[in-house]
Amino acid sequence: MTTDYSCLHQLASDLFKLPQSPAEWDRYRLTDEQVDFFQEEGYLAGVRILTDDQVETLRGELTEFFNPQHAGRELWYEYHTNESASPDTVLFHALGAWRLRPAFHDILWHPAFTVPASQLLEGAVRFWHDQLFCKPARHGGVVAWHQDYSYWTRTTPMAHLTCWIGLDDSRRDNGCLHYVPKSHRWPLLPITGLAGDMEAIREVLSPAQWEQFQKPVAIELKAGEASFHHPLLVHGSFENRTERPRRATVINVFRDGVQSQSNEPLLQGVPAVPTGETMDGQYFPLLYQPQ
């Protein structure tokens, strides 16, 4: 029987360690300038989250997931060996790794993530769900332009945050993230699809938005570095044209107090949280409470 790590709301291994003093916690804090940049541009990139050893441990667990018959496969919220419609443009995409393996579980409580997340959310950090986005060498598929909150309107208010963590060096030629700066000030856009068509978003943009859209920023990161972005920030990533994979894990969180806006299950296999009730409990644990 595979362990379901969603039942454990503390570290399951010694891969990460929690600080033992206020000074140790403070070393993970963003500067005022970094917080100001996030608020102005809608993102913050280049934050070191993982050591090389931690990256290797996560890569090891990730390798198991590529085999569809891996232990614990019944625990995924979603599992797609290829989210793309074409075998020539593979995009491995899965939600729920935190339930299956200790390293992907424990990274949620890692202070290098939780402390900056709390600053950017301006409050206590509660877990929403994780994701894996992996593009194999030479033909990795795209992640089409989108706003994260367009997929999350079953929760309210919009007090969410995404942290994208590279498990490989992420560059233009292997499909790094691209952000449209300041697009977090746009209203919510219609969903135009997550995989396959990088041009579809043009159909839902105003002329002014389209002009701004022409100046995306490539977010190049070293393995173990992260970028944070606002739930309305438009972002996407192009294909992998290199001989090496581009693997990433994503942690999505919200400020404590966010409520369900649906009587249907918020994630596959998770008991429904009635509309208007606060999201908490086994599947939405509190990760960090600022002092």
Automatic annotation (TrEMBL):
Transmembrane segments: none annotated. Its cofactor is Fe(2+). It comes from the Bacteria. Keywords: Dioxygenase, Oxidoreductase. One of its GO terms (molecular function) is iron ion binding. PANTHER family: ECTOINE DIOXYGENASE, PHYTANOYL-COA DIOXYGENASE DOMAIN CONTAINING 1. This is Phytanoyl-CoA dioxygenase (PhyH).
